Hints:
single chain, alpha/beta, two-stranded parallel ribbon, 7 helices, globular
Amino acid sequence: MVxxxxxxxxxxxxxxxxxxxxxxxxxELEKSFQPQSFDVIWSSHVLEHLYAHDVFPTLRQFxxxxxxxxxxxxxxxxxxxxxxxxxxxxxxxxxxxxxxGPIRPLDMLYGHSRAIEEGHVHMAHHTGFxxxxxxxxxxxxxxxxxxxxxxxxxxxxxxxxxxxxxxxxKKTLLESGFNFQEVPA
Length: 185
């Protein structure tokens, strides 16, 4: 997606070991970035590592650092899908295999057990999301248009800034495998 749009990728992480472009806490984005610095924010499996009370202020910071025609693409575990899986298969069953190894409901709820055991305590999950919760938080944070999709144990949200080209962004994302197209009634 980044290369297709000729965007410059800036990797931001709290862990210097993953060699991000900028090391810092997502809770303090204002220390690292000026207002309206970015066209796109891609936050994949980050928000669940925050405490519940820190999510809204972080989403407000996302809104602050995005350009007026920008957008945020956010992915988190889908607690509703995890709950259904637990009811049907149990909490210890393998839901899927990832490059990090087998993923069980406990990993999706509380963070990847093996990574935490290896000392990466910042990988623990402190909150969770359903499509409704994430969508509502983004609207409250000031994004005028929010679309949410659920698939493969993930909630994926598209939050558009006021001057964003909704149709063009959704078309580009669809080409990259993210479907936010409206379903005809």
